[in-house]
Amino acid sequence: MEDNPPAARLALEQLVENMETAQRESLPLCQDCGYITVLAEVGQGVQFDGLLVAAIQAGVIAGYERGHLRRSVIHHALSGRSEPETKDPAKVYVELVPGDTLRLTVMPKGGGSDNACRLQMLSPTSSEDQIVDFIVGSVAETGVNACPPLIVGVALGYSFDSVAFAAKRVLLRDLDEPNADPRARALEERLQVEINQLGIGPAGLGGTTTALGVAVDIGPTHMACLPAAVNISCNQLRSAAGTL
Length: 244
What we know:
Layout: H1 6-25, E1 35-43, H2 52-67, E2 90-97, E3 102-109, H3 111-115, E4 118-122, H4 128-142, E5 150-158, H5 160-169, H6 182-196, E6 211-221, E7 226-233, E8 240-243
Parallel strand pairs: 1-2, 5-6
Antiparallel strand pairs: 1-3, 3-8, 4-7, 5-7
Helix pairs in contact: 4-6
């Protein structure tokens, strides 16, 4: 923090104060409660009385109403910006897992940080330097508009339609825990250094605190492909999970 200019240090202090106030008063950290993503890990021994996804959507709607939250998700992307979606406001991913429990992970993510995300089908022969250039360049291009300091999720591999989700999912990883993949861990360390050298800083006011953390997921892919996705989160990365 000492390497940030006075205005940037003040911005960091205000962010901390905002988080403390939100926790104390049970208020949202930000007025944009985002697009809700729900990960449902369903034990193969679980039976439901009714439709799981419909129940999750109803729970999200009830949460908006009880919490007096702003409904940021609109009904139709091309029919104006004022009509909220009242039936299916969340994106729900369902995964079957062993066991007889249901685990739900809820992740709201604001529109400003989603606008900063990028996806590119890189050449399968891309070097690490070229991969890093794409990721760091994406942050340099869009990060100032995503309420820095940032948390940066990166996914490499998978397929065009799944790499973006992998880059969002990896944001749920506890950044205090070392990445189990040594190559991904080394890439995280390099990316954090190079992103912080961009000088964007807190609230775009300069300094060395541009990325609070970087999480990298490297998965399988077709030998002819190298999908790469950068999912940028603002400093107010929020999630909650529970098991039934």
